[in-house]
């Protein structure tokens, strides 16, 4: 049911019956728009279907242009685990994504709360700085930051990607702030009148109300890390034992030359968790995306 | 607001408010302190250090002052200029196409009477696919001899290029990938479109305005802020375009990870070499870190121009908050 949560649309009021010509035109428009939507849907889903089909082809067929598997070789999914240290990569990715998400929430929620709901001098500048750090490309400061981690002998590991999340993530702060400003002021005022300090107000009153936004931020951050290629490429080094799934996947074909079926099986494995979680948490995703659009 | 009990309490005792207010300032500082530390350590300091290193020759071991040498080198670094050309191509082609396509798809979804939610899900889904996975998928889909797209094109009697193996077609191939994963933009536009007051459309219809004129004179002006925001963030994101170009070039070239060899991005023939890729390659593969800092400052300057547009918008919204 959650799958078909339609966008809210006001129901048009009943009108006098339009003339027959009008109605025929409306019917034609209906058919045209739905046909176009179906054609587009096929184009959007097609790549996923072809990746799936190739993943179960034999080595031989994957090198031809025949699209339908003549023999469904489900072993491919077991095969990829023998070809590459996928379990290690998945473990590393889960460690990176899990810790980074937890750290982000702990450090970013109070910051977003301060920016959205506390009045203090410099609040506007702080918010503008958050947006600036969010927008500027990570490559801009990459060299000195890399040197910093090299001093601590942490290059060659994923820690340079995890530890900074203890110090807040600009995108998460921004997103949470955008949600928190929409909560009416009366709620925190009431809590203050009842003698709650700011910390208690945040934990008892605001956090429960902000649950959808926190869920969205957690999902975004987790999957940002799950998908991240640039970060691990920069820091994980040349030892495959330290790689993440994205990094390993990109070199999967290079290590085992043209084996499209296995590559696509691994590709499917990398996207499966995102798609599965999406179907369970579609609302959080969509609401989160809307928050990034600003009004 | 002044008539509420809370407001009156505040105005009745103005001097008593200052103590809690100062405390609230301290609380704000406390709540913001992790981010402030992060801002200093991972943004302000490295930005200054980038300026400093740009005057040095630095390879992680020896540091040597070379003045403007790195800047002079940039002017005759052909690869850097190729990379600038490619990144500008992506900004000029990919961003407008993505915005237009997302708006078109969103507009279509608002007109669907049946299954709008299902279609929205289908159109959004590809944007969730991990970048590396999506790129691998597209290289395969467009791969001559094995991919379904060339097979389909030749079945229709159309010529099919060698996409990621042809310097003229590699960037269009990446553009197709970018259009496929346009879903999050579409969701943003869809929300904006559904927020346009219906009465405006009804009034315009009574005045005899057709669908196209209604779109031009009502929809566009109302959702203009959302479009602008999407366009500017799109430009800034495209200036960072890295992963898809890197992975596509790597896979299409069949580069192997043998010891001692370093993969040079840009296959085929430098067609996919983006500016951030060249910065990455100079800084972390050739370890010309001083020179990489020059490239970083250029990227900073250009991104900052577009970021300032955004900041102006947010400064204004903050005013009425």
TrEMBL record, chain A:
Q: Which UniProt keywords apply?
A: Cell membrane, Membrane, Transmembrane, Transmembrane helix, Transport
Q: What is its main location?
A: membrane
Per UniProt, subcellular location reads as: Cell membrane
Tell me which Pfam families the record gives: BPD_transp_1
Question: Which SUPFAM superfamilies does the UniProt record give?
Answer: MetI-like
Q: Where is the ABC transmembrane type-1 domain?
A: 90-281
Location of region: Disordered:
1-20
Q: Which GO terms describe its cellular component?
A: plasma membrane
Gene Ontology biological process: transmembrane transport
Q: Does the keyword Zinc apply?
A: no
Report if keyword Nucleus is assigned: no
Which residues lie in Pro residues bias regions? 9-19
Q: Where are the transmembrane segments?
A: 27-57, 94-115, 127-149, 161-180, 201-224, 260-281
Family annotation (PROSITE patterns)? ABC_TM1
Q: How does it sit in the membrane?
A: Multi-pass membrane protein
Family note = Belongs to the binding-protein-dependent transport system permease family.
The name of this protein is: Sugar ABC transporter permease
Where does this protein come from, organism-wise? Sphaerisporangium melleum
UniProtKB/TrEMBL annotation, chain B:
The similarity comment for this entry is: Belongs to the binding-protein-dependent transport system permease family.
Where are the bilayer-spanning segments? 26-55, 88-110, 122-142, 173-194, 215-236, 288-311
**Entry keyword set:** Cell membrane, Membrane, Transmembrane, Transmembrane helix, Transport
Query: What species is given as this protein's source?
Result: Sphaerisporangium melleum
Q: What is this protein called?
A: Sugar ABC transporter permease
Tell me, which GO biological process terms does this entry list?
transmembrane transport
Entry GO CC: plasma membrane
Subcellular localization: Cell membrane
Please state every residue range assigned to the domain named ABC transmembrane type-1: 84-310
| Lineage, top ranks | Bacteria, Bacillati, Actinomycetota, Actinomycetes, Streptosporangiales
């Amino acid at each position: 049911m959650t799958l078909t949560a339609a966008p809210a649309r006001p129901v048009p009021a009943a009108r006098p019956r339009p003339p027959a010509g009008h109605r025929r035109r409306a019917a034609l428009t209906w058919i045209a728009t739905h046909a176009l939507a179906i054609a587009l849907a096929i184009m959007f889903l097609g790549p996923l279907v072809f990746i799936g089909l190739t993943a179960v082809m034999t080595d031989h067929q994957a090198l031809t242009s025949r699209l339908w598997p003549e023999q469904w070789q489900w072993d491919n999914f077991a095969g990829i685990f023998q070809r590459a240290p996928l379990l290690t990569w998945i473990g590393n990715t889960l460690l990176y994504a899990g810790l980074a998400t937890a750290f982000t929430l702990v450090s970013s929620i109070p910051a977003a709360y301060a920016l959205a709901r506390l009045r203090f001098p410099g609040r506007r500048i702080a918010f503008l700085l958050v947006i600036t750090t969010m927008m500027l490309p990570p490559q801009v400061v990459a060299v000195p930051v890399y040197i910093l981690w090299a001093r601590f002998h942490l290059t060659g590991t994923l820690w340079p990607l995890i530890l900074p999340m203890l110090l807040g993530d600009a995108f998460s702060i921004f997103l949470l702030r955008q949600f928190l400003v929409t909560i009416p002021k009366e709620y925190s005022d009431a809590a203050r009148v009842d003698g709650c300090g700011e910390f208690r107000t945040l934990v008892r009153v605001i956090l429960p109300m902000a649950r959808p936004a926190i869920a969205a931020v957690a999902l975004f951050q987790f999957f940002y890390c799950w998908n991240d290629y640039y970060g691990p490429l920069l820091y994980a080094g040349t030892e495959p034992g330290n790689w993440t799934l994205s990094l390993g996947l990109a070199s999967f074909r290079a290590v085992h030359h043209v084996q499209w079926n296995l590559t696509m099986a691994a590709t499917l494995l990398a996207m499966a968790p995102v798609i599965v979680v999406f179907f369970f948490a579609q609302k959080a995703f969509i609401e989160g995306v809307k928050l990034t659009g600003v009004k | 607001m002044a008539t509420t009990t809370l407001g009156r309490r505040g105005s009745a005792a103005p001097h008593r408010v200052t103590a809690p207010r100062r405390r609230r300032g301290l609380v704000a500082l406390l709540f913001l302190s992790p981010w402030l530390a992060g801002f200093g350590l991972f943004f302000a300091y490295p930005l200054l250090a980038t300026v400093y290193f740009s005057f040095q020759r630095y390879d992680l071991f020896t540091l040597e002052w070379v003045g403007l040498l790195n800047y002079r080198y940039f002017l005759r670094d052909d690869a850097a200029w190729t990379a600038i050309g490619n990144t500008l191509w992506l900004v000029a082609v990919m961003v407008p196409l993505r915005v237009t396509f997302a708006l078109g798809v969103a507009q279509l979804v608002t007109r669907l009477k049946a299954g709008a939610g299902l279609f929205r899900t289908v159109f959004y889904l590809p944007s969730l696919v991990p970048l590396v996975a999506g790129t691998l998928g597209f290289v395969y889909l467009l791969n001559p001899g094995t991919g379904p797209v060339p097979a389909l094109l030749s079945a229709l009697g159309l010529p099919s290029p060698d996409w990621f193996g042809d310097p003229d077609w590699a960037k269009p191939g990446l553009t197709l990938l970018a259009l496929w994963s346009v879903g999050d933009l579409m969701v943003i536009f869809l929300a904006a479109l559904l927020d346009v007051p219906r009465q405006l459309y009804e009034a315009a219809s009574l005045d005899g305005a057709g669908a196209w004129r209604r779109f031009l004179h009502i929809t566009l002006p109302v959702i203009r802020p959302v479009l602008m925001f999407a366009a500017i963030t799109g430009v800034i994101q495209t200036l960072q375009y890295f992963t898809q170009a890197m992975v596509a070039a790597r896979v299409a070239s069949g580069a192997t990870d043998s010891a001692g060899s370093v993969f040079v991005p840009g296959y085929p023939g430098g067609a996919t070499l983006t500016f951030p890729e060249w910065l990455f390659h100079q800084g972390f593969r050739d370890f010309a870190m001083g020179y990489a800092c020059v490239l970083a400052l250029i990227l900073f300057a250009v991104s900052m121009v577009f970021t300032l547009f955004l900041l102006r918008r947010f400064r204004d919204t903050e005013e009425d908050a």
